[in-house]
Amino acid sequence: IKRSDIEPTSEEVEEQISNLLSQYSSTEHITDRAAADGDTVNINYVGSVNNVEFTGGSAENYDLTLGSGTFIDGFEDQIIGHKPGETFDVVVTFPDDYNDSTDADGNTIVLAGKEAVFKTTINYIEGDPIYPEFNDAFVTENLQSQYGWTTADQANEEIKNTLTEYNKAQYLQNYLLENAQVKEVPEVITNTLLEHEEANLTNTAATNGLPVEYLLMMYGYESLDAFREDFKTQYTDQIKLQMIYEAIADAEGLQPTEDDL
Questions:
Q1: How far is it, in rounded angstroms, from Cα 16 to Cα 105?
Q2: Measured between alpha carbons, how far is residue 62 from residues 41, 71, 92, 122, 123 in Å?
Q3: For residues 117 and 90, what is the distance between their CA atoms, to the nearest angstrom?
Q4: What global pTM score does this model have?
Q5: How far is CA 127 from CA 41, 65, 130, 191, 261, in A?
Q6: By C-alpha distance, which of 237, 234, 216 is closest to 225?
């Protein structure tokens, strides 16, 4: 393998370092201007219908992106133009098919078609992320316990080595798929893996109380047949690779010992 084919570029190393730093980043808090469409605001709100607060209608320090359509129609629009520190009422009407809620005593509160008032406070507007400096002090404090690194130079070198090993593995996989001849992928292997995937799909749907069809739609599939076809396309190379690995292991006598097991 040519070193130039697998050696990571400085940009790839920097990207990994940036990903690490993002885990320790903080966010600038903007408090000197009004909220605008597209901003992410941190808010507190308390919702009520006919002056009665209802379960699920209140939150503190909630991050909401204005214009995302996350909340009920009209909610986000009414936050635009207000500044951090302001407390104001957001008045919206629940859809006619909205589920009921309860009050503090457990009594049912009908929300469908009702006008609701949310007393809302903007705490701050989220600004750009603030990243720590990647230096020896940062590495020692945050990365030593997990990775054993004590200096930025050591971390940089280890990240480069890890990327090199990853690129090497990818190179070898691609080489094997391009050069080894796999006559056919046994259908029994594909079907067995597909059965596992369909079982996972069914379990995920059941756990979340959703129909399988709805979950498929969330994943971007029109039907179970479309999911199956996509699975076969995606996993064919992985199955081939496992078959090639087995052939190499058999040819080279690479079997686990009792101690390995």
A1: 51
A2: 8, 12, 18, 10, 9
A3: 6
A4: 0.60
A5: 9, 12, 9, 49, 52
A6: 216
